Structures are given as C-alpha cells and as structure tokens.
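Give me structure tokens for this 303-residue protein.
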Amino acid sequence: MNTPTPKTIPEYLDQLRDALRSADPALLQDALYDAEEYLRSELAENPGTDEATLLATIATSYGAPEEVAAIYRDTEVRVSKALSPPPAKARRSIAGQFFGVATDSRAWMALFYMLLSLATGIVYFTVVTTGLSLSLGLAILVIGIPFAILFVGIVRLLALVEGRMVEVMLGERMPRRPLYAERGLPLLTRIGRMFTDPRTWSTMLYMLLMLPLGVVYFSLAVTGLSLSLGLIASAAAAAMGRLGLAEFHLHLHPAPMWDSVLWIPVLFAVGVLGLFVMLHLARGIGQLHGALAKNLLVKTAQH
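Here you go.
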C-alpha cells in the first residue's frame, strides 16, 4: 500500500519513524535527527515555497520516508561490518574457548572501560546531584528555570558522550546524533517536552548508577589484575631467586612455603589463568552494561 506524500515535516518524520519502527532505536534517533536537519535547512533556503510543495520535491531528491529508511538500514549494515573488529576464530574445545578470549578485542576494551568507569561515574554523579540540587534550590528565583534547562542540556550532552564510549568500547550500537526533538514546535513546548521525556530521567538514573557501578567495575578490574600479575611477578621473582638473579632485579626472596621449586610453576599458572578469567569477566560485564546503557540512554520508537 502506497503511503500518502507527507505535507508537513512532522508528517514526514512520523512516516520515517513508522518505517524504522523495527530498527535499532539508536539508528532511529540518528535518522530522525538527520532528516529533520535536512528538511528544515531546505525549508530555510526556500522561504517562499509552500511546505507541502517543498516536501513533494524533496521526496524525489532526498527520498520518501520509506526510501530513506531503506537507505539507513543498508548503510547501517555496511558501517557495522566496517567498524566491527575481525571476528574471533571459532573454537570448539573448552580450552580453545577459554584461552581464545585473549584474541577478543571486545574483552580488552571492556576491561579498559571498567578501569575508566570510576572516573566517569564520579563525573556523572557529581553533575546530576549538583544540577538537581541547584535546580530545586533556585526554583523560586528567576534564574532557576534557565539553570534547569541548561542542566538538562548538559545531561543530554553527557549521555551522547557516554553513548560513544559504550559503542566503541563495549560494541553496543548507540546514537551518533543528539536526541531528536521537533524543532518546529514552540519553544516553551519543546522545553516542556525535555522535562516530561522519560529518557531525560532515565539518563539521570543511569548517571547516578554509574558511581556505584564504577566502584564495582574498577574494584573488580584492579583486584583481578593485581592478584594475577602479582602471582606472575612473585613466581618470576622466586625463579630469579633460585637462579641467584633476584639481587640484580627484585629484592624479593622466596617465602618458606616456596622451598619446593614446584611452587613456582603453580603460582605462575594460577596468575596466568587469573588473567584469562578476568578477561572473560570483563567481556560479560561489558555485554550486560551495554544492554543497560541501551535501555536507559536511547529513546525508543514510540512517540
């Protein structure tokens, strides 16, 4: 069934939203933002042209909503293939699957995200708590409303930045454009929608959660790496001590429990296994956190 040609920009965007309803919400947000940006720029460059006439013309150049949706879907597939890291070699054995995580770039990037999350969590938590406190405290003053609007704008900007980090490090598709807003609406209506949009508050919730999550992620990563590397270093120091080389490198001597040389390979093996376990844990946490970020930071297809 042919869709009628849209006569206004909101109608065009509604049809594009319907055409991409089953697509990734992040892709939908990018498509709506790009479409409105293009349509309104064309309208501004042709002030004497009726909006319906202009949209009919654009349908043959920029494309009808269904055509634009198809282009975005095809482009998304190509871009995803280009940006995705090389797929890890399939391994059927349990040992291959366990040790093969070392070749998975997503595991290493997720581990780095865990180390970085404490710093970002502190920043997000500070911004949200300070912004909410000052917005409520200044609400009785004239400056209160502009400050609250600025605060929400900063939160949305931070959400876009966090989304880029999540996509790059954790592999979860996130928006690459700012949150779509109908710029043709009156200013006060647009401001009101900022505060009534559930994603505004879910974004703040995400940023508040990032502090405790960041503490947990950072603690797990540092503890796991420290224990594993510490065991490996201790085994190396013990081996060097046995060879009489420790005095040149490390002022560490084997503990009494290491009197048997058999302890050295055991400690080394446990340390190496700990690193692989840490990579598996980081990859799993990365997948779970990516899903959390997708649900709290990305606007869904519904109106």
